[in-house]
Design a protein that fits this description.
With 731 residues, the chain is α+β, with helices and mostly antiparallel strands. The protein is 50% helix and 19% strand. Strands 14-26-25-24-15-22-23 form a seven-stranded mixed β-sheet, sandwiched between helices. A six-stranded antiparallel β-sheet has the order 6-5-7-13-8-11, with no helix packed on it. The chain has a six-stranded antiparallel β-sheet with strand order 16-21-20-19-18-17.
Length: 731
């Protein structure tokens, strides 16, 4: 399966995005499609039987336009300036129209040759010309409105189109009567309503669009972080090149105060680097030869040479941006509910408007009053606010999470995190730092301690397990020359094997000893190590135990606080680890976990998670690689410590800065997002509940009424209410 994000042109409301989404999901070769109104994008998963050009044809079939694949460049200044200029010009024109048509009502001095009473023909023709100009301004709305009606998928544009064209055609009919000498019909013209409705719809969308752009600020900031140029070291000379000219393997220079141009590995020098933009961690980290650095990081105080490894779209920052955009384009369950409601809402409003029109005529009202109420209902009830309620809040929250170093892969996760029943923690590298140190060695052989450690370091060097880091660090510090290892094998949940100089070695826990029935007279030494909180590693040579090594870890500073907070929220906390029971319980007691499940193999971890998930929403927190199966099986899998390998991560949430406090932040943001969405939906429905009766005219006996012009203004205000409420999440 392939994935693509396409920019979509022509969407104006939730009915648009819903219709396009339904159409795409019906097409052969498309596995899933999710359309985002706020970002104006479609996230499409498809197979090899179709191409992107086929997908673009499907998009065009329903009246929308594919603007090509999503790119990280988000500069929309040209379009913005053109729209702004148009609105300024037409804003002046709409004021002139209002003055011509309403000056006599407000006792303002009228323009003599355009006076409704003295020069009705001039008055009528000038308003007609203005109406034509505004119809040209709103041609895109009218075109889409008619198109959607023919596709039997009416949307907001359809409501506006019906309202405007009804007013225009009725006014055109009266204009002909006026031109034929029936001057009394000059009072039945609604050309000014056409002008004002179109202007306020356009103005509302312009303001709405700029407000929506603010929701994408976090994504824009990520895009703009990486520098446009880099310093390449060629034969000890520095040459400035553009990012596009950098090739994998090039040696680049980053001086103090400069930003890292591409992802790479330091080959010379050391410095402190500020990674706050991607990890949310404000304290710079010290990095030296062999350490990885990420594009966009700021070099604080050292002169560093590094080798380019991941460039362009393969870089960490590009992966982060891609994930944030993809997550924003997925649908939360509550958003699907809003889409379903919108699908029924527009046809219902059309029916209500027609019933209103007929009832007015049957009750003896004049035709012009009936048509005015018909238009007012259509315009006032446009479901803009309803369509924006969910996606706006989701996009803002995704940006907030990204700024804090929390990468959420789907908006469904962002909604569901607030409903978490159980949080399951792995131990090593999750509740603890995973910076293991060799604390003690028992030597049962003729080898020296250093020789045993050389054997272990040589084999552990091929492993990615957190315990292997202790030996890699030791080998680096002691400058041990590693032996060549053949037939390396990882035995999941038990240990590792390898051959050195024709001898077979095993390094791992006591399960291997028991499974292979190896004689073990060192149980007391094992108990002594575990009682001190050590993880233990047996060293076996050709089925003979030659050593026992204790490796200790340090509990994360924030572990106790995080677990206490989770328990205070009524969330059950479990530790699930492959380590021995004594060590696990000792760590659990220190951090405040009561439910401990130790000696659990990775495949059994997966089974435990599946069993817990039958009746609960389970959040699993662990290492992104070693705990991949259980992270994938959990309702929400949270990966700690895999920030630079985003693409390969199987978790649904990635904590880029390894700070467990972000687990609480995720749950908190989720709760606030869900609350914000419910508020948005309430205000959207509340607006329609209030506006529709007024538009119909049910409150006229109480002196409360509305005309099409005020309906357009009220619709704009309702959308902005939802926009500004969503933006509160940024705080």
């Amino acid at each position: 399966m392939k994935k693509v994000i396409l920019n979509i042109g022509g969407m104006s409301c939730s009915a648009c995005s819903s219709r396009l989404e339904k159409h795409l999901n019906k097409q052969k070769g498309i596995k899933s499609a999710s359309v985002n109104l706020v970002l104006a994008q479609a996230l499409i998963e498809y197979d090899n039987s179709i191409s992107i050009s086929d997908i673009e044809k499907y998009i065009n079939e329903v009246g929308f336009e594919s603007l090509g694949e999503y790119r990280e460049e988000l500069d929309e200044n040209v379009v913005y300036k053109r729209e702004k200029t148009n609105l300024i010009v037409f804003g002046v024109l709409v004021l002139i129209v209002l003055y011509i048509s309403m000056s006599h009502m407000l006792n303002l001095p009228s323009i003599p040759f355009l006076s409704m009473m003295d020069n009705p023909i001039n008055y009528t023709v000038v308003l007609f010309i203005f109406a034509i100009l505004f119809l040209i301004l709103g041609f895109d709305i009218l075109k889409k409105g008619i198109k959607n009606l023919f596709y039997k998928s009416p949307n907001m544009d359809t409501l506006v189109t019906l309202g405007v064209l009804s007013s225009f055609i009725y006014s055109l009919y009266n204009m002909i009567l006026v031109l034929n000498g029936n001057y009394s019909y000059v009072e039945n013209l609604y050309f000014e309503s056409c002008c004002v409705i179109i202007f306020f719809i356009k103005f509302g969308r312009f303001i709405d669009g700029k407000s929506r752009e603010r929701t994408k600020d976090a994504i824009k900031e990520l895009v703009q972080i990486t520098p446009k140029t880099a310093l390449v070291n060629i034969d000890n000379e520095e040459k400035e090149v553009t990012i596009d000219e950098v090739n994998k393997g090039d040696i680049l220079v980053v001086r103090p105060g400069m930003s890292v141009a591409v992802d790479g590995e330091i080959v010379e020098g050391s410095s402190h680097f500020d990674d706050a933009f991607i990890t949310g961690e404000s304290i710079p980290s010290k990095k030296g030869v062999g350490d990885k650095i990420v594009a966009g990081s700021i070099n604080i105080d050292g002169y560093v040479l590094y080798k380019a490894e991941r460039i362009g779209r393969d870089s960490t920052i590009s992966e982060v941006v891609k994930l944030v955009v993809e997550a924003s384009n997925t649908k939360a369950p509550i958003a699907r509910l809003a889409d379903i409601i919108s699908g029924y809402f527009v046809p219902s409003i059309m029916i209500i408007a027609f019933i209103t029109f007929i009832c007015y005529l049957l009750l003896g009202f004049e035709f012009n009053e009936a048509i005015s109420s018909f238009v007012t209902v259509l315009v006032a009830a446009c479901p803009c606010a309803l369509g924006l309620a969910t996606p706006l809040a989701i996009v803002v929250s995704e940006g907030v999470c990204a700024k804090r170093g929390i990468l959420v892969k789907s908006s469904e996760i962002l909604e569901n995190a607030s409903k978490t029943d159980i949080v399951v923690f792995d131990k090593t590298g999750t509740l603890t730092y995973g910076n293991l140190k060799i604390s003690k060695i028992y030597n049962y052989s003729d080898y020296s301690d250093k020789e045993i450690l050389k054997i272990v370091c040589s084999i552990e060097d091929k492993s990615d397990h957190p315990i292997a880091l202790a030996f890699k660090s030791y080998a680096k510090d002691e400058k041990i020359k590693l032996s060549y290892v053949k037939k390396f094998e990882n035995i999941s949940g038990i240990g590792i094997k390898g051959n050195i100089f024709s001898k077979e070695y095993f390094i791992g826990n006591s399960k291997f000893i028991k499974n292979n029935k190896i004689s073990n007279s060192h149980v007391d030494d094992e108990k002594n190590l575990t009682s001190l909180g050590n993880s233990i590693l047996y060293v076996v040579e050709d089925n003979n135990i030659i050593g026992l090594i204790g490796v200790s870890d340090i509990i994360r500073d924030e572990s106790r606080e995080v677990i206490s907070s989770l328990k205070n929220q009524g969330i059950k906390v479990i530790m699930l680890t492959g380590d021995n029971e004594k060590t696990a319980k000792m760590i659990a007691t220190e951090v405040g976990i009561d439910d401990v499940r130790a000696n659990v193999l990775p495949k059994d971890k997966n089974k435990v998670i599946k069993d817990l998930s039958k009746d609960n929403l389970v959040m699993m927190i662990g290492d992104g690689i070693n705990d991949a199966p259980s992270l994938a099986s959990a309702s929400i899998g949270v990966s700690v410590g895999s920030g630079t390998d985003i693409a390969a991560n199987s978790a649904s949430v990635i904590l880029m800065n390894d700070n467990l406090k972000n687990v609480n932040s995720l749950i908190s943001i989720s709760k606030k997002t869900l609350r914000n969405i419910k508020q948005n939906l309430f205000w959207a429905f509340f607006y329609n509940v209030c506006m529709i009766p007024i538009a119909i005219g049910l409150l006229k006996p109480f002196g409360i009424s509305m005309n099409p012009m005020f309906a357009g203004i009220a619709m704009t205000i309702s959308s902005l209410t939802v926009v500004f409420n969503s933006l509160r999440l940024k705080r």
